[in-house]
Amino acid sequence: PGDAYWVGRGTSQATALVSGVAALIKAEHPDLSPPLVVQALAASADDRPPGGYDTGTGFGVVNAARALAEAERLAGHTETAAGAQAHDPARPLGAAPPAAIQVVHRDGEHILLHGGLAAALAVVALGSLATIFALVRRGRRAHNGQEA
Questions:
Q1: What is the distance between the alpha carbons of residues 69 and 36, in angstroms, rounded to a whole number?
Q2: Which of 144, 127, 140, 141 is nearest to 6 (CA)?
Q3: Cα–Cα dist 5/145, whole Å
Q4: Is 54 helix (H, G, I), strand (E, B) or coil?
Q5: 42 within 8 A of 25, measured Cβ to Cβ
Q6: Is 68 helix (H, G, I), strand (E, B) or coil?
Q7: How far is CA 47 from the centre of its chain?
Q8: What sign for the dihedral angle of Cα 32, 33, 34, 35?
Q9: Which of 12, 18, 69, 123 has its CA at a distance of 20 to 30 angstroms from the CA of residue 60?
Q10: C-beta separation of 59 from 100 below 8 A
């Protein structure tokens, strides 16, 4: 409003931004598995909290350029992750950094089902961003007397 940028905080803004960066990664590397997309996002974040993760800020602030570079690096690997420890239900989440993401090979049907869901969520997030942009633009025009 008033020809100024909005500064937002919280999960709503973060969801839209992270979904957009995930969509960029999938556009560049369509065969990259969902766990590796998550790994690229988490490993490339800026302003990481002490210990690498906390429940307030997650892994940090998404960085699109670094996430794409990390995805490029991960796309070249064919080895699977080994030695990742499962979450101990006796410890509350957030008490320690999460275990490394373990890459699990899935059958084609599983990948299509979950990959399609992730793609649909990314489309919804990008559609939400477009709607917000249009509403802000309409508000600016109305404010400037360009619309009745």
A1: 13
A2: 140
A3: 19
A4: strand
A5: no
A6: helix
A7: 15
A8: negative
A9: 123
A10: no
